[in-house]
Amino acid sequence: PELQVKYNSEVESTNSLIKKKAKSGDYTPPLLLLAGEQTAGRGRRQRSWYSPAGGGLYFSLLLKPEVAPEELYIYTVLASLSIQHALQHFGFDADIKWPNDILLSDSKLAGILSELLDCGDSDNLVIIGSGINTHIEEFPREIADRATSLVREEGMAPPVEALMSRIIAEFRTNLEEVTRQEAREDLHKTWVEALGLGGCKIKIRTEQGLFSGTVQEISERGELIIDREGNLMHLDTGDIMNFYN
Ligand code: BTN
Predict the structure, then answer these.
(1) What is d(CA 50, CA 139) in angstroms, rounded to the nearest whole number?
(2) Ligand 1 mean position to 229 CA, how many Å?
(3) What is the best residue among 7, 58, 109 to mutate for testing ligand 1's pocket, by most ligand atoms within 8 Å of CB?
(4) pLDDT 10s digits, 99-133
């Protein structure tokens, strides 16, 4: 089916609205919901996402997954690569930070929040939400040392519509591919290369605490595997505090 596109000038959270509307049957995949502003934008790990009007691009995609449950992470990979490539198209040299942050000059430019919508038996849906800071000039004090925007880094940003259509174009190409195992392996490989973490020593904060180790590999399920003096630790998510070769 064709991708439906919806726009709301103001929502609490595009992820939350999609969740609600998909549950009630109002929204069916594939669907893209964009918002001009979010009053209760959500980030990973119960954090909020600053989403002022005119400040950035806030959107969520509702998709029916076409991969096995353990491979769902590939949709976030797809999103981060699509965003990175779209930004590159406009001349911004953004990096991907595991698991799915987009950085510009080491500061956070965009984030991805993917959620699984449990619809009973087999019809689970995925929601991939992303916020990209394009025009924000001043961030709230709590995040000012970590966050950045295109305008802050480079003094200008493309119109959000142009950036969005580029992301959709990237996404469409990749989405068709994702059903093929070989293509998924290629996506995974491209992502792992973009992360550039192989062999790095890292310090990472997780819900279980702070850990240090050497990156062994990124698994087929997207986990970060670190070697801690001979013990391998598999991590699904976390905040990498710093890393060096
Ligand atoms: C993160 O890095 O913590 C993820 C941030 C995700 C923010 C986006 S903005 C659009 C979508 N709706 C939300 O409430 N959150 C995501």
Answers:
(1) 8
(2) 35
(3) 58
(4) 999 999 999 999 999 999 987 755 799 999 999 99
Pick the CATH number of 4-195 from 3.90.550.10, 3.30.930.10, 3.40.50.450, 1.25.40.10: 3.30.930.10
Question: In this prediction, does ipTM exceed 0.90?
Answer: yes
Identify the burial level of 82 via C-beta atoms within 10 angstroms of its C-beta, where 0-12 means exposed, 13-18 middle and 19 or more buried: buried
Q: Does domain 201-244 have CATH number 2.40.30?
A: no
Cα of 129 vs centre of ligand 1, distance in Å, is 5
Burial of 190 (0-12, 13-18, 19+ CB in 10 A): middle
Whether the predicted pLDDT of 179 surpasses 70: yes
